[in-house]
Amino acid sequence: MDNKLHYFHYLQFLLLLSSSCFSLVAFSWISPYNENKNYEGSSDLVNLEYHMGPVLSSPIKLYIIWYGNWNPSHQATIRDFLNSFSSSYAPHPSVADWWRTIRLYTDQTGQNISTISLSGEFFDFKYSQGKYLSRLSVQYVIKNAVRSYPKALPLNYKNGVYLVLTSYDVQVQEFCRAVCGFHYFTFPSILGVTVPYAWVGYSGKQCPGFCAYPFAWPKNSGKPPPSTINGGNSLMGAPNGDPGVDGMISVIAHELAEVSSNPLVNAWYAGNDPIAPTEIADLCLGVYGTGAGGGFVGQVYKDSWGNGFNLHGVKGRKFLVQWVWNPLRKRCFGPNAMD
Ligand SMILES: *[C@@H]1O[C@H](CO)[C@@H](O)[C@H](O)[C@H]1NC(C)=O
Questions:
Q1: Residue 13 within a domain
Q2: Which residue's alpha carbon is nearest to atom 7 within ligand 1?
Q3: Confidence of residue 81 (pLDDT cuts 50, 70, 90)
Q4: What is the predicted pLDDT for the residue at 225?
Q5: Which residue ranges does UniProt annotate as crossing the membrane (predicted)?
Q6: Burial environment of residue 221 by CB neighbours within 10 A (0 to 12, 13 to 18, 19 or more)
Q7: Whose CA is nearest to atom 9 of ligand 1?
Q8: Residue 67 belongs to what H/E stretch?
């Protein structure tokens, strides 16, 4: 306790010296989703179980497929975020620190989930499968990317994970109505092999209130946007300047945590239904810091413009990423935890 207080004063002192320093004045944010099932506090009610399947225990090579018409500055934000997973250069609490919680999960041979590194990118600017994608057609997007000439991605079925990111003008089955992203694995009948993949959509135009929370507010929530404890204005500012992209960052992190711990949907999940499993990030939806729950996203930091964040990344970037279930502490956890 004393240590923490000391640290706090030290940072306030630094703030006086430098206006570009981030503020450690943690602030809470109110969630519109009061009914959210989240478990920031320890809970014996969570029956997260291991179902004997594999986890991604070889060093994970991540391949991005940019589908559609992407803004280069949005791409740069996402690329820096993904490069932050394997970087030791960012200050604590970092994206790499956040990944350490995911690495606590093991398979039945005792192998932990491994490291993750961005290993290739493909630009499907011609919308190879059109502007409406079904869940299944996302697999054809991957097939196109690994078969394309001349700049195909490798078909890496040993330790590859494919991340399909759709632009503002692409509709995806259930996007904005039920989901902001999902993960699954490819079928041999489509790709010839089974490889894990995830999809996340850019929600900035279609449904920021649904997928870019807490940077945007759901229009139909029936509640006014939150006010900050210091009487500031309504919404949390996006640390990289775009609610759609900053919201996507947390969804991407959510899907990478789950595809690694439940790649074939037979490893780590709670509940008895493998068709609708509650996975390690689902358990902590809307939780970004200590004290989350009951409508609060928890204590996070403010940058010098007042935008919210809880993790540092490469190139001085800041990100807001939800917590995941920690299997040893048996509660939601992130490296910005204050307890
Ligand atoms: C692997 O998982 C075990 C069990 O959760 C944990 O004690 C250990 O620290 C993990 N190792 C790494 C490298 O994260």
A1: no
A2: 104
A3: very high
A4: 62
A5: 7-30
A6: middle
A7: 104
A8: strand 60-67
- Say if residue 278's pLDDT is above 50: yes
Ligand 1 is surrounded, with C-beta below 6 A, by 103-104, 106, 112, 327-328
The answer to whether residue 277 is domain-embedded is yes
Choice from 48, 60, 112 to test ligand 1 binding pocket (greatest atom count within 8 A of CB): 112
Q: What are phi and psi for residue 188, nearest 5 degrees?
A: -55, -30
Q: Which atom of ligand 1 is nearest to 327's Cα?
A: 5
Ligand 1 centroid from CA 160, angstroms:
22
Q: How far apart are CA 96 and CA 98, in angstroms?
A: 5
Side chain identity, residue 269: Y
Domain assignment present for 40: no
Q: Global pTM?
A: 0.88
Diameter of the chain measured on Cα atoms: 61
Q: Which residues pair with 290 in a beta bridge?
A: 299
What is the residue whose two structure tokens read 């991604």?
56
Q: Report the separation in Å between the CA atom of 166 and the middle of ligand 1, taken as the mean of its atom positions.
A: 34
Task: With respect to residue 150, please indicate whether it lies within any of the assigned structural domains.
Answer: yes
Q: Which atom of ligand 1 is nearest to the CA of 328?
A: 5
Neighbour tally for 306: CB within 10 Å:
14
CA of 55 to the centre of ligand 1 (A): 13
Which protein residue has the closest C-alpha to ligand 1 atom 8?
104
Ligand 1 centroid–CA 113 distance in Å is 9
pLDDT of residue 150: 87
Q: % helix / strand / coil in the chain, to the nearest 5?
A: 25, 25, 50
Tally of structural domains, the chain = 1
Find the 57 Cα to ligand 1 centroid distance in Å. Answer: 12
Which residue, among 242, 316, 332, has the nearest Cα to 284 in the 3D structure?
Answer: 332
Domain hosting residue 285, numbered range: 48-333
